[in-house]
Amino acid sequence: MGRKGSPRSPQAEGGSRAASPPSSSPPSPLWALPEELLLLICSYLDAQALGRLGQVCRRLRFLSSRDLLWRRIARGCLNSGFTQLGTDLLMPWMELDGEYLYLSQAENIQAYRLCSDGTGLQRHPQAIFSGHQEDVCRFVLVNSHIVSGGGDGNIVLHKIHGSYSVKFSAHEQEVNCVDFQGGLIVSGSRDRTAKVWSLSAGRVGQCLHTVQTEDRVWSIAISPLLSSFVTGTACCGHTSPLRIWDLESGQLLTCLGTDFHRGAGVLDVFYETPSLLLSCGYDTYIRYWDIRTSTRKCVQEWEEPHDSALYCIRSDKNHMIASGSSYYGVVRLWDKRQTRCLQSFHLSSPTSSPVYCLRFSTTHLYAALASALHVLDFTAP
């Protein structure tokens, strides 16, 4: 048996040597630029140019698909009319504080004094709080402090009475929701994370925990006990869109509900007490949760009669609930002791608009639509 020879080279077989693969080209200098500068460059492109840019490679497709770039283009296509104050609201948020109403308009938050009869606002704002480069998505007003999250991924803290303000980069994408209690901020983002931030002396803006929610976060709220917080997510995966997390450790404590359908995202959450929680969203239901009795099923639920998504809810922490629908500016009042809607208000609007935010007291209800701020007077005959 002959000795086994070594493999013969292509030259030995009479063939030519196979061409070696070309050396990899050096990385483009484009990727040495910071992301903020790349986004600034892309912001000068129109829709057609952005679409073509996204066909070049995966990295450019990811860059050109950022909401930050398309929001400006979409805004120019919207026929959203004008508000009674003379400026375009788009997706406003608001908070009531005594005789002032704080309203987000584009990248600013403006403080308007309420008229003496409560039926409107004074035309010119008493104060303007700025700091975002993109629209304010949500903000909260707690203990004379405003904490806001914006489409630029930043969180901004303002002290109402004074010039003190702090701004820090919080998320890779829009900060869709924030809450602030006990010297801690919680934030939720489209980047599928929720974060806990410190505001204690020497640690302002320091991230204490990052929670991987595996889904876009639409709503967030801290428990009145300051021990946990709840997130409402888009429900695009296989986990519950309502989850409660430990505020100190960032660990998951429990999931609420078991029968959510895919896409049943939770757009708003509201704590009445440490154990009683309201939620609403795309599945058209208001749900009332009592964490003491069950986390698997809510204790009460009300369905929007016209099958519209519910963008916002508020409660007087007694028997009354107010909800804002996704079409035609419909506000509904509910009594927890009844199964059906108590009263409906179809707020006039140039075009169909969701009710993005509402606040109410014993005498008035304020509802923010895309094109107007409406006031309902409960004292009028």
Please name the defining characteristics of this protein.
381 residues; 4-stranded antiparallel beta sheet; single chain
Description:
The chain is mainly β and 381 residues long. It has helices spanning 35-42, 47-53, 58-64, 67-77; strands spanning 94-97, 100-105, 108-113, 127-129, 136-142, 145-150, 154-159, 165-169, 175-181, 184-189, 193-198, 206-212, 217-222, 228-233, 242-246, 252-255, 266-271, 276-281, 285-290, 300-303, 310-315, 320-325, 330-335, 341-346, 357-360, 364-368, 373-377.
User: Which structural class do you get from the secondary structure elements?
Assistant: mainly beta
Please give the alpha-carbon distance between the first and last residues.
Answer: 113 Å
The profile of the biggest β sheet is: 4 strands, antiparallel
Rough shape?
globular
Poorly predicted residue ranges: 1-21, 78-89
How large, in whole angstroms, is the Cα Rg? 26 Å
How many alpha or pi helices? 4
Q: Which percent bin holds the helix content?
A: under 10%
> Beta-strand level of the residues, as a percent range?
35-45%
Order of strands, widest sheet: 1-2-3-4
Give the overall pLDDT as a whole number.
Answer: 86
Strand element count: 27
